[in-house]
Amino acid sequence: MKLVLVALQFLTRLPVRLDRFEPRWLNDCVRHFPLVGALVGGVGAAVMVAAVQFWPAWVAALLALAATVALTGGFHEDGLADTFDALGGVVPREKALAIMKDSRIGSYGALALGLSLLLRAALLAVLATRPMLGAAAALLASHAFARAAAVGVMVSLPYGGDAEHAKAKPLTLAVAPRNFGVALGWCALLALALVACGVHLPRLLAAMAAAGLAALLMRQWLKRRLGGYTGDGLGATEQFAEIAVLLAFTAAV
C-alpha cells in the first residue's frame, strides 16, 4: 500500500502524505504505475460520461483531456516536449541532455505537444460519439497500458542521463524485472474487468499490442540517441503509447 501511495504522489497532483519515505520505494513503486494510470483514466472517463450529457462530443472530449492533464499536472506532456526539443534535431548526446534540462520550450517540443493534444482530443471526440462503455474502456486502458509501456522501457534500458543531477535519483537505478511483471499483472486485471463488462477482447488485445509497439519504438530511439532512458523519455513513451491505444480503440475494423 505504501508503494501505491508513493506512485500516486509521484505521478499525480493528489495531496498524498506519507509518515516517512525511503528512496528505494520510488524505484519499486513503478510496478503500480498502471494502477495510477487506471485511476487517471477513470477520472477522465467520468468527466466524459457526465459532459456528453450536456455538450457536444468534442467539448466532452476536451473536458476529459483537461481533467487528466490537471490530475497529473502535465507531467508526461512536459516529458514529451522536452524529449522532442532534445532529440528532434541532430545534436550530440551531451547537447541533447542539456536541452532536456532547459525549462524553455522550443519549436520541436511545441509541435510535438500541440499535435499530441490535438490528436488525443480528436480520438476522444470520436469515442464520445459511441457507446460510453467503449469510451470509458479506452480512457482506462490508454492510461494504464501507456504507463506500463514506460515501465517496460525502464526495465529494458539503463539510465541514459546524468544520474548525479537527476531529479528522481532512485529511478536512475536498475528497475527489477519483477516490477514490470507486476505492472503487466495490473494491465491483465484491468483487461479482464473490461471484458467482463462487455468490451471486446480483440479490441483490448490490439490496444495492448499498440502500447507494446510504441514502447519498442521509443526504446530503440532512446537507446540510439542517448544510450538509455531519461525521465523525459519515459514521459514521451507514455504519450506515444496513450495515443497508440486510443488509435487501436477508434480504428474502423
TrEMBL record:
Documented EC number(s): 2.7.8.26
Catalytic activity: alpha-ribazole + adenosylcob(III)inamide-GDP = adenosylcob(III)alamin + GMP + H(+); alpha-ribazole 5'-phosphate + adenosylcob(III)inamide-GDP = adenosylcob(III)alamin 5'-phosphate + GMP + H(+)
InterPro entries: CobS
Protein name: Adenosylcobinamide-GDP ribazoletransferase
Gene Ontology molecular-function annotations: adenosylcobinamide-GDP ribazoletransferase activity
Chief location: membrane
Family assignment from sequence similarity: Belongs to the CobS family.
NCBIfam families hit by this protein: cobS
UniProt xrefs under HAMAP family: CobS (MF_00719)
Keyword Cell inner membrane listed: no
Places the protein is found: Cell membrane
One Pfam family named in its UniProt record: CobS
PANTHER family: ADENOSYLCOBINAMIDE-GDP RIBAZOLETRANSFERASE (PTHR34148)
Segments crossing the lipid bilayer: 34-52, 57-75, 105-128, 135-159, 179-197
Domain of life: Bacteria
Keywords on record: Cell membrane, Cobalamin biosynthesis, Magnesium, Membrane, Transferase, Transmembrane, Transmembrane helix
Task performed by this protein: Joins adenosylcobinamide-GDP and alpha-ribazole to generate adenosylcobalamin (Ado-cobalamin). Also synthesizes adenosylcobalamin 5'-phosphate from adenosylcobinamide-GDP and alpha-ribazole 5'-phosphate.
Pathway(s) of this molecule: Cofactor biosynthesis; adenosylcobalamin biosynthesis; adenosylcobalamin from cob(II)yrinate a,c-diamide: step 7/7
Keyword Magnesium: yes
The organism of origin for this protein: Pelomonas aquatica
